[in-house]
């Protein structure tokens, strides 16, 4: 059965791969972007401008999607940023900006999505966290806190809305080949590779496959879970 899917930050990287995987299986898919979306290269995706740090913009984006494709049945809260530096050097602004995007941004979207999901007695929320959320990362106090916070968000939603056929899960990717990891210094990349049991970074499609599976009927009894897609990097965390 085709569903209406919204992927935040779906104009590139992991988000785009997720959006394309849903579109490929016949779902109606919208993505949010902040002005840079090559609509011609992805004609089966509805692009909606939205900065997830702005509640009014989130509300407007959902309204557009509802009008064009119907109520959002599957929310993939994917948009996120890093702003790495060591704790001693991290400004409060650097900390709160990452939290506001990665954690509060996901909250804004989940809250807006929940109304219609409750009315429809069906919904899937998938939060894209990171192995770093539970494992920690040097220079990533802000990012790790935001990604760990998503676990609390998903598990609380699970307890609040579980009886209404609404699931809330977290996908925790390890290191994936995208713009976000392209900026890592070579020595840091080599260090990371040594720690990954699979011995390689992942492809975006490997995250997308997990997300589409979680949104499908086969995964209806999986909720409040943290699913790693990390080549074994975060084992035991
Ligand atoms: P990219 O940097 O390639 O893309 C980030 C996306 O988030 C872009 O679409 C960007 O939009 C969007 N975004 C950032 N800030 C905002 C905002 N304020 N409002 C709306 N959209 C915003 O990242 P990846 O594809 O690598 O990562 C996607 C998600 O996966 C992130 O949450 C990231 O933390 C997580 N992740 C990534 C890993 C990796 O190795 N790459 C590993 C683990 C988790 P715009 O194009 O406008 O900037």
Automatic annotation (TrEMBL):
Q: What's the family?
A: Belongs to the short-chain dehydrogenases/reductases (SDR) family.
Q: Coiled-coil intervals in this record? A: none
In which organism is this protein found? Answer: Rhizocola hellebori
Name a Pfam family for this protein: adh_short_C2
Q: Which residues form the Ketoreductase domain?
A: 3-179
Q: Which InterPro entries match?
A: KR_dom, NAD(P)-bd_dom_sf, SDR, SDR_fam
Picking any one GO molecular function of the record gives:
oxidoreductase activity
Phylogenetic lineage: Bacteria, Bacillati, Actinomycetota, Actinomycetes, Micromonosporales
> Can you name this protein?
Beta-ketoacyl-ACP reductase
Q: Which superkingdom does the taxonomy of this entry point to?
A: Bacteria
Could you list this entry's UniProt keywords, alphabetically sorted: Oxidoreductase
Q: Which PANTHER family match?
A: 3-OXOACYL-(ACYL-CARRIER-PROTEIN) REDUCTASE (PTHR42879), 3-OXOACYL-[ACYL-CARRIER-PROTEIN] REDUCTASE FABG (PTHR42879:SF2)
